[in-house]
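Handout, section 4.2: multi-component inputs.
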Amino acid sequence: MIRNARATFGLAVLASLYVMHAAPVRADEPVAITITIKDRQFEPAEVHAPAGKPIALSVKNLDSIAAEFESEALHVEKVVPPGREAVVRVRPLEPGRYNFFDDFHRATQGVLIVP
Amino acid sequence: MLPSLIIVFREVFEAGLIIGIVMAVTAGVAGRRLWVAGGVAAGVLGACIVALFAGGLSQLFHGSGQELFNASILGFAVVMLGWHNVWMARHGRELAAELRAAGQAVVEGSKSLAALAIVVAIAVLREGSEVVLFLYGVAAAEGGASGSMLVGGVIGLALGALVCFLTYLGLVTIPTRYLFAVTSTLIALLAAGMAAQAIAFLQQADILTALDQTVWDTSWILRDGSFLGRALHTLIGYVDQPTAMQLIVYAATLAIIALLMKVFAVPHQERPRAPGLAG
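Output:
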């Protein structure tokens, strides 16, 4: 019966969601980094973070236009409405340079350096 | 004009791929154009609303509102896609052929179309909200260049529609014999990719932190930010640096859909053997 099929399917989805939700507590306290967007520039445009630790990247948009904070290398993508602050969590990183940019205004660029 | 064109096109072409697939999957089912158009319209309306409330949304749930919203609608799309596959497995290709022959939208057929229309609406809403925010910012900013920027945006939209059309054309050339298996596989992969994407949002929002280590890095082969990378990202869920949790959820989604399709497949019915998930 279609009703049973849907119920079972829904149950399977709920079960999966529960398993994912009951995830273990994080072990590492994230490193906090703050970046502001002003006059369509990142300030600072170059930030540093240690390797192997998760990062809490806070982006404050001081302009009057929405920005989209994005980084392919960091696998992060978040719209920051004007006047708001967005926090994204970055997974622990290997040493390297990780570029980020405003997807709505590609000229706005910055880099996260992990020594 | 060019930056605006590229930005809008990049957002829109992923939705274009999904719409193209849905149109191909429902080829021959009467009334499907209306359903898909309805999905697109609902998505556009939703995108405007989301863009309007972007500020408030971003502050909800300790700043994780946006990610939670994205993960939720993606999750809902996954359920819709999975349900569609199970429904198709249950009713079999025979009914689909009957629908085509009769040229009528049977109530049962409408349910499946509704599920796919919802998926279309979600895809359009997700990409569309960013386009709306971007274009609004352009219009509100320095007045001089905004005219050409908006034109660029419109052209980007048109190119996205072209991608949709080409995807559709490419898929409907597949011989009917294989169509069921191919479309079931495409839908399942679409669902698995969306599920993994939902996980990425939850990890970004610090809601889900387990198993966040990067399992492999294929960015030297294909960056997921490139155009081909994005196409594969939408179609099969390609990510160049997947986390363990993303891989597990991806595999689990495929497994659950395959299992449910098998469990609810048409029983005791003589069917010509065909390759594919339900086989």
